[in-house]
Amino acid sequence: MMQSVGSFVWMHIRQSHFITGHVFGYVQIWNSDTQQKVVASIKVSKKAVSTVKFIARKRWFVAASRDCFVHVYDYEKELETVMSFKVHDGVFAWCSLDVHPTQPYVLSGCDRQIKLWDWDQDWNCIQTFEEHSDNSNELKFNPEDTNIFASASDDCTVKVWSLDSPKSKYTLSGHSDWVHSVDFFKRDGQHYLISGSVDKTAKIWDLQKKECVHTLQNKSTVYSVFAHPSLPVLITGTRNGAVRVWSSTDFRLKTKLGDISPVCGFACLMGSERVAIAHCDGVSVMEIGDEKEQGGSEASNEYSISAIDY
Hints:
The structure is a single chain. The chain is an all-beta fold and 310 residues long. The protein has one domain (89-309): YVTN repeat-like/Quinoprotein amine dehydrogenase (Methylamine Dehydrogenase, Chain H, 7 Propeller). It is built from no helices and 28 strands. It is globular, with a radius of gyration of 18 Å. InterPro entries: Coatomer_complex_subunit, WD40/YVTN_repeat-like_dom_sf, WD40_PAC1, WD40_repeat_CS, WD40_repeat_dom_sf, WD40_rpt.
C-alpha cells in the first residue's frame, strides 16, 4: 500500500490513471487496473504536496506545495518541468487548486487569497479574489457553468464567485466551524452544492434559494465531499476514516465503509462506478453498485461497496 498520501486527485487519462501527492513532496501516477505505478515518483518540493491535478488536454499535472509554490510538469516528456511559480508571499501555507475544464486557467487558494492564473499568458495572474476572513480551502469549478466557482474557508463560509469579478456573488453561511470541502451537483434540474466541515456535518445548499436545505450528520470532521457525476449519490469522508454514501435525491444514508485512516479526498473514474478514496495510509478504490440492478436482494442499503487497497 502507498504510504503518507497528503492529497489526491484522479482524472480520466487513458481511462484508468490517477495521481497522488504526498506529505514528503512526491507525486506519483498510478494505473487503477494494474495497481502499478506507471510513472516513477518525482519529488516536486521539499515541503508537502497539498493538492495535485491533471491538466489532461496539455498532458501536464500541476501540484501545489506547502511553501506556496505551484509546480507544472509534462508527464509525457519524462516529467519535464514546465513551470514553477510562487502563488503567495507567505513561506508556509495550505494551497488548493482547481483546473478550468475548457479555458487555460488554474485557480489557486493560499491563505486568504484566491488567484486565477492563465497559462496562455505565461502563467500570469489575471484575477484575484479576496473576501474570506480566514484560510481558503477547497476550490471547485461548477461543471454546469464553468464561469462560476465555489470556495470553502476556515471562516465557516462557502463563497460563490464569477471569474469576471473580484467580488463574490454570494456567501453561504450556516456551518459552525471550518469548512474543508465543496462540490456541485444537480437534482431535479436544479443546481446544488455540498460542503463538509469540522462541525461534523455536510450541508446541502440550494443555489437558487441560496440557503441550506438539508444537513448530513457525521460523527467526525468531514474532510471531503464528493458528488458522483453519473450516479445519484453523494459521498462524505471523515477524520475518523468513515466513508458514507448518501442519496442525492432524498439525502438518506445508503451505506457506509469504515476502518480506514483519515480521508483526504475522492475522485471518480469517468464512465464507471469506481471511486478512489485517498486517505492518510494510502488509496482504496471502491465499486459502488446498485444491489437491485445486480440482482441482489432488497436490503436497507440500496448501494453496495467493495474496496481494493493500493
